[in-house]
Amino acid sequence: MLRPLACLALVLALACAGGGAPDDPDRRRDAGGTRDAGGGVDAGSVRDAGGGGDAGGGVDAAPAPDGGACPDGLTRCGGACLDLTSEPSSCGVCGRACIAPTGGTAECRSGSCVGVCPDGQTDCSGTCRATGQSCAVGEGLCRREGVTICAPDGTTCGVTPGAPGAEVCSGADEDCDGEVDEGTRATVRGTSYTALSARHPGCTAATRFGPDCNAAIHRECDAVGGACGNSGFGPVENAGDSATTVCAEVDVLESSFAQLSAELGPCDGASAEGIHSAACNAAIHRWCRGRGYVSGFGPLEHAAPGAAFVACTRLASVMGTSYTALSTHHPSCDGSSERFGRNCNAAIHRFCRSMGFASGFGPVENSGDTAFVACVSD
Question: What is d(CA 101, CA 128) in angstroms, rounded to the nearest whole number?
């Protein structure tokens, strides 16, 4: 009897030690250790211990879609953290790669692609080209100096030439064509018959006008005119011993009275009228025009009835007028009292000046009241 009672006492003691009734189903599950020990709903501490929840980077610490945040100043591009202000493969934005110019390299500076060329060269639209060398453009007074810079088709001088002006007798190239004081540029100058007679004894205050004065004026202009006057015409004004002449840079050509008379018969060198007259003015004008010039004057020197030297010019302006108009500038040049001579010289000079020119010569053609004259600029 003692052994059965002892067993009953042991069972009761164990039940009291479990803290609950023997038939409590929850306690039977806990005691069996099957549900909670296997990660049941109530065993949260076991999940944390196994690496879940906050302790192991669970739901609240999930990786960012781009793989995680980059240090300050860097941006994640794919799998790398890059400085978009200086990274050539992602300059300014991810994936924008800088392209190196031909002959150079590429850098990213402050988020912008920059082509880097060797010293003395510049990235000119994707190609490294030599720039910065000294250069100049333009001729004469239009010349400007600068340095080479990029241009759409390569490089160019980075300055613009000055604007050309009218060529004047100054020793400079005002019209910027590479030539100095070229062409028929008239210089009106005062002289005297005393000075002219020293050039040719036949040109005096008594003769005043004629082939001898043509030679004297030509020689004086050639001597004192320099580059701006290798010949001349006139006198365009005269009074007492004073004479006004016009020196100009022209082409002095050798002709002959035979050639001139072929242009207009009376200019044959056989008489004073055949040497210096309205007919010879027209013959010289036509002879020069036949050789590509605008007009001409002379004869400057002659050996009648053989050689005759004449002055031809490309830069005169032939103007149509009338003796009626010319007589308003000098009353004697009316087509009746005089059609050709020193008074008409003065009338033509004054007419051309009224038109904005420096002076003029002629008449180079005339018929009835019609007269054509050649005006020249200074």
Answer: 6
